Structures
1.
Amino acid sequence: MRGVQSFYRDFYGHEFFRHFRRPPDLDNKKFRIQFALKNSKNLLLHVLRNSGHHPCFTHVYDHGSWDNLKRGNSRRMVLDRAFFDFDVSNTQVKKIKNLLLSLRRHGPVHERDQQEELKEKIRELIINDNIAKKAIDEAKDFSMNFKELFGKEPILFFSGCKGAHAYTFFRASGFKNLNRAGAWFAENIKKSKSYECLDLAVNLDALARLSRTPYSKHQLTGLTVVPFSVEDSYDEIMEKSINPQVEAFSRMDFTSNFHEHLKRIDLVESYNAKVEKTRENKEMATSQTYNSGLVNDHRTFFRSIMGTPEREYPEKEYVMYRCPLKSHEDRKPSFMVHKNGYQCYGCQKKGNYWQFLKDYYGWRDEDVKSRLKNFNGC
Ligand SMILES: [Zn+2]
């Protein structure tokens, strides 16, 4: 495909500090997952090497320097864009995907014919049975609404499987908490427009997010991540993805004034966070006077409610779950439990067992108190 490198240069910048990641579905623990990138040429080489074999992800945000790429200090990142993800859940695809993954675990060429057959089945579901249509239509609708609100439409991509992506660009801006402001916007537009496919988890941890690299091939379908416009029909989008050609791209065409909106939310949300913090501290003090010493080890307590953790790190003294809180659709385990409490890296909620019982079951302080009356501790 001609022109991919110059597309990357315009899309990601002349020089940048991002990670390229190819999360494996392999058993091989030695498989290197992450590489540092500094320009479009590096990126193109990684994509060429992995496209169609492994997922190709690139950091949404430029970290600004090598040093910061390691440390991930969000105040030093170049905050010049926002990313939105639309995805359909489909049980048929899920079933085939699981079969395919069990083969891929031994490598992308293990039982090659069988793998190809399964890939073909997923492709058929997407291309002929229009499985991705709902996500694509929602992304189109989002794009039109977005343009009305913020002056310019976002650039849309077909994900190569059953989803769509949208990016908007803006003047690099400072935010106290871009995660919170972005999540607030995403939550509200999802609710008001009933976007079933809009995945909120993406905006809850926007700063840490990597997104599927444009013009890479999806590892489960062989279909290419390509841009599309609201005028393109479903079939036209599929055609582009099967036979991709790099389209002219200018960031200016997709540069909106979304940052001004985010900044206003950011101000309000920082204030709310302060108020919330004071409330939490008060409640924490209350719960401690009620029950000091009732839960000696939160890991044991959470095991009794949520079962075996998704990940355990004996030497690091904490365990990870998928976040069970209602407001957070957590795809990876972001919910950490240590001896003295929990903290979610996705939705930022934290506290001790008392706070958890309130958040999880919707109980009030009195409810927790009465329910724990006969609890002997752990
Ligand atoms: Zn969470």
2.
Amino acid sequence: MFDVTSIRSQFPALGRIDDGLPAAYLDGPGGTQTPQRVIDAMSTALSEGVSNLGGGFPPSDLAGDITEGARRAMADLYNCHPGEVVFGQNMTSLTFALSHALAATWQEGDAIVLTDIDHDANFTPWARAADERGVDVRVARFDPETGLLDPTSVTELIDEKVRLVAVAYSSNALGTVVDLEPIVEAAHSTGALVFVDAVHAGPHHLVDVQELGCDFLASAVYKFFGPHTGVLYGRADLLASLDAYKVRPAPSDPPGKWETGTQSYESLAGVTAAVDYVASLGSSGNTRRESLADAYREIEQHERSLGERFISGVHEISGAKLWGVQQMSRQRCATFAVTIDGASPKDVTAHLASRSIYAWAGHYYAVNLMERLGVLDKGGLVRIGFVHYNTAEEVDRCMEALAEI
Ligand SMILES: Cc1ncc(COP(=O)(O)O)c(C=O)c1O
């Protein structure tokens, strides 16, 4: 049974009071808050004593155990092998690192396919690498009217010259969910690899790399109730065969060869705790993966009802515009971009903040998307996002504050 009150009581930050009002965190797309078990796991790792890997004494062994535990947790979350999980500072740095390694296999005359619905972290690393190698960049365009990325707009750009297709699982700006199946199928039919940016999917959807059939998938744990750590899934054979940019004494086998320098072990302890936290929201299955699947079903249902409440509320406010997909469906999650006639996005979020409601204004690094929507130089859009710990009351408070504007 999904009990939001008991869920919220696990998050110390959700008890925050600002100016006498309970804080409403509607900034989940920029990063979520963490439950006490994540905070405890991180502080326990530090207070127990954690040393660097490979020392052969207990605090060093702890670093190894924490790392392996976090790989198993992420493998359960993504349905892959623990050896296919690479950790790094954040999604952006992991993507830059992989882009160098992949680009080394490209030749002049090759091409890659990117999209304009993507966050810039799934655009610029690839575009720069392509530029350095004389590789053509083809950009699939989303529909600014509907907010959808028609898979055909991607697949029609794929031919035998294409080496990589980099595409979002979902948009961090409009909340659009991309239909990846035809894209992966078309890419693989001509031998191109597929890299999926699943950062925005983390808090909303159960990711299954086997089902997606992608070759790489990157994410960030701070978007799903954990610490500020990036994660990269890579198909085992590719992680093994590609030449990682690494220092000579570092491991030569994956996943270690992809993990530059010393990892944040306290964060990795938090990664496991974050996955266990999400799993705890589902009924206890035979495996952690089963519990995770159940948890995401509950999460989706709760977010869907918040999203429906939000959409019908926004449609009632005169002068308010909801951008992108206009109803809750498989094509969107509960991340919303809105504008209010006569008020800049910054004015809107400042007003919300004056009511202790935290939301974002701007482009949130989705710069190509904002440009297509014609709002890049107009202060972007207001982003209001809901995750499973948000409530119907918070939706209503947000509506009241928007109506005041
Ligand atoms: C969809 C998406 N991709 C990539 C990123 C970049 O993630 P990171 O901050 O871990 O580099 C973000 C961050 O907001 C994002 O929302």
3.
Amino acid sequence: MFFSGAISAKRAGIKLSAIKAMYKEGIRAITDDGCALMNEDLLKQALKLSKKLNIPLLEHCEDPHLSAGGVLNKGKVSARLKLPSAPREAEIFIVLRDILAAAALRAPLHIQHASCRESIELLRCAKKSGICVTAEVCPHHFTLTDEDAASLDTNFKMNPPLREKKDITAIKKGLKDGTIDTIASDHAPHLKSAKKKSFIKAPFGIIGLETMLALVISELVLKKIISKKRMVELLCLNPSILLGLKSKGSLMPGMDADICIIDPLKKISVPHKFVSKSSNSPFIGKKLSGWPVLTIVGGKVVYKR
Ligand SMILES: [Zn+2]
């Protein structure tokens, strides 16, 4: 297991945390995930340090002044339901600001859970210009839209929020052409009692880990948007490169024996019961193909279906 360290002390966004000390203890990245660094001077200090230590700065891109109180993507659905909404600019603004800062400092920036078409376009331009930026997307952002959240089932409430069809199209293009480097689950378990609250009061987040592979296979590989080789790059190889995990991410001789054996055609409905203690997933009951049947970690079988 590997850890990220907080960028700012108590994730308060005021001063840097003890990053060097945490680095000595083995952190592989720094992030204040859940919040963006709004203090630009602190962002620059953190980027300089991430460059010096050669670990990426992972940014949750959301300007809280713009997203304030929003529980859905700002658009037709939020207007129809009369719910407070977060405009896409809340994400785009921070993506742009961070890319400019990373370019000026030549520091390693990683954009977490990109969800907007404009973010993907900015990333594509930045990469073409040789800026040191990488990015991830989450399965729920390339499979669901804010129309799905109109049911007001709180398992469709996450941050960044579900966007629109044009965003799904852009994310899939980015996955295909290399603009996006990795797919991440943004796994966020919550108690049933917490998710039973109203859409406004319930916490953001869903569990993404157990459905991630089947969503990637069903929605991307079997629909021929990406190849199996590209899937392995996005889920295994690129994350290990990003985090500097030299013995992970491939099956070459000398690497750790971490192996997942997949049945690509096994088709089942996502069950109500997860291995995780939580079950806050919007995919329960959805028929998906491509499930792990055997998982080996460090040469030991840890899961067998
Ligand atoms: Zn986040």
4.
Amino acid sequence: MFEGLLEGKVAMVTGGGRGIGESAVRMLSQAGAAVIIADIDTVTAGAVADDLISQGRKAHALALNVADFDALPSKVAMAAELFGGIDILVNVAGITAANPITEITASGWDRIMDIDLKAMFFLTQEVFKLMKEQGRGGKLVHLSSLAAQRGGRSSDASYAAAKAGILNLSKCFALAGAEFGIYSNAICPGNILTPMGKSLSWSQKDPKTYIPIGRYGTPEDIAYAVLFYSSCMSDYITGDDMKINGGLYI
Ligand SMILES: NC(=O)c1ccc[n+]([C@@H]2O[C@H](COP(=O)([O-])OP(=O)(O)OC[C@H]3O[C@@H](n4cnc5c(N)ncnc54)[C@H](O)[C@@H]3O)[C@@H](O)[C@H]2O)c1
């Protein structure tokens, strides 16, 4: 239904090997983008890339640990070589934690901040520089969370704080990028059934008892918003965040 929308564009998706990232990769690819599936898990990323290539699409799996900060410049340069630059960056890679507030340790805190927040900043900074050099604008999309807006419940305070940081950094990139046609927007998913979602306590509840829409979210529910923020459909929107949670934030 959206074939051709992203024809000629190149999208890099971190955490694209499974869950929300995989769904985003498949939707961007269906819309015509060449996709770079950047994930620490090269097996899942490779399988997604192989599947898309077998359908005649442009795709490549890139081994990337987003928290390997020193390697980010060379990884972005490598990604930009593949299909001719980068037009869309989707920051999906992330981990969660679910410790009671009294049991969060300094090392656990640092791990969450490194992967969920610091990596988002330094990878986006690198791609932002490239987009400025390219001179053809760009779309930056970041996965935050409902936890950023109402505090961590199943996930913990360190995760909620990192995801709240993403909302702010997204606005900073939006301000810095506007004059160059570089857009930055964030997405705040509620309870989405993915491998990460299944590790959290909400997945043991009956969604009809607490989610107004009465079901968990699917990765596709989130991928539609990724597509929206990655395309010309959102060309007058920057520094925004979309809540996709079945009514959990009413
Ligand atoms: N599932 C939910 O309910 C939910 C809700 C709100 C926000 N989110 C956010 O959405 C994003 C995707 O969540 P998901 O549920 O699909 O998670 P997931 O655990 O199912 O998938 C995460 C992906 O990120 C990759 N990854 C993890 N660490 C990495 C690293 N250091 N470098 C590169 N890749 C790495 C994993 O290999 C995996 O492919 C995350 O940022 C998450 O915080 C998820």
